[in-house]
Every structure is written in C-alpha cells, then in structure tokens.
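Appendix B, record 7
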Amino acid sequence: MVNFNRCMVSIVMPCFQQVTFLAEAVRSVLDQKDIVVELIVMDPGSTDGSRELLRRLQLEYGDRLRLQFEPDEGQSDAVNRGMSLAQGRILGWLNSDDRLRPDALARLANLLDHDHPGWVYGRAGMINNLGEPVSSFIAWYKNRRGHRFSHLKLLTENFIPQMSVFWNRALWQQAGGLDTERHLDMDYDLWLRFSRIVEPVMIPFELADFRVHGQAKGSRRTVEQLDAAYSTARRHAAKHGLKGKLALILHKILGLRTRLVYLFVKPK
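Structure tokens (predicted):
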C-alpha cells in the first residue's frame, strides 16, 4: 500500500508550448508559504523552450518540482497521469498559463486533511497576458454566482473556476478522475460527479487567477466549450427528472446569454 503524505499538497500542471507564462505559474505554486507542496509538470513535447526552462527551475526548487516529459492523449489524460504520481493527500491542477494566489493553499489545507471525501472551491481573479489584473464582468459574475452551491444550481451552468478548486485523495479515488474523452468541459463533468458524492466548501477568497490571452483554449473555443457543457449537463440532469429538465432549460438560456456577453466584454 502506498503511504501518501498527509501534510502535502500535490498540484498537477499540464503544460504544452506555454513558455511565456510557465515560470510565473510554477513559482506561484512552489513559493506558497506555510505548506508542504509538490508540483508535477506534465509536458508531452513542447519545443518553445518550456522544457529547458523547467529544468532550470528544477535546479532552484529541487525535488519539489517533478517533471514528466512523456506523450499523452490530451489535457485530461495528462492530469490523470499526474494525479497517479502525486504523493500528497490534497490535490489540484493548475494550467500553465494561470497562477495561484500567494496564500491560497494555506487557506484550504485544514479543510481537506481528512480521510473522507471532500473538496473546496474559491473565487478567481482574471489577468491579462502581462499578469495584470483585469476588471471583468465575467469574473465578477462567476464569483457572485458561486457564493452558494447546490448540485442543481451547478447543472444550470459551470460557475466554478477550475484553477480555484482543490480536493482530497479520497474524493478523487471515489469519483474516478477526469473523463479522457472530454477536452473542453472535463472540469465541469468532474465537479458534477464530485457534488453527487459530497457538497463542496466555498472559500470566500480569491485563490487563483485565470489568464485570458489569444492562445488560451477558453478564448479560442468559447462556443464549443459552451456546447460541450450543455451536453454534459444534459447527461447529468437525466437523473433528476423534472427538476433536471428545468435546470437544462435554464442552462440553455444562460448559455445563450453567455455567448452574447463574451462577444462584447471578454478580454482578447
């Protein structure tokens, strides 16, 4: 039996061709205070200097920065592979263009350091390609909507910012990890499966920052992402009868609204 480190937080970072933002993302994890943390970076073949940068950072951070340079089947597969290598009891994933807030992990560790399934989520800020805060209706709305949680409410739209979610090993093992067939809404599917097991604890602080830039998946494929989320909601809503059908109607309405909002206010 593997003896996992009860006091450690393990963060998995899928990385591909993100050298511009990579150092900031790595440091945001490994410079966390008052917590034992490891970062597992999964790079399937970057050619933009990411691997060379990671090796230099590893000289600075030692074995707290673990590098895996192997092919994968996409982001979901990379995260699952990284989680299988994680040594910590508390888990999360951070994309290589986002960043954690300095005190994020210390705020949540005590809430997840136990043997029964649990997860938490917080708020997220929005930053531009220079790392500067962006005043955004989208970030404000998500943070406001996520103030209170229910499974049925989550069926109406994904209001949980991925980079601000953390869970413990017991929940990951029970839920089964990311669906590797999903490439745009794998986080939403995971939150819906998590919430069928146990409701999350909402932390009313900004735990991370979401970066908006021209190459980000969410910026380039917004419409596809919304369509995928509706399909996922429909699959989960089938278990809830009439309440699920009503949630889907609201999901469709909110999705149409979001498409219009993103046309005008989403940073480029």
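Remarks on this record: The longest helix spans residues 241-265. The two ends are 48 Å apart (CA to CA).
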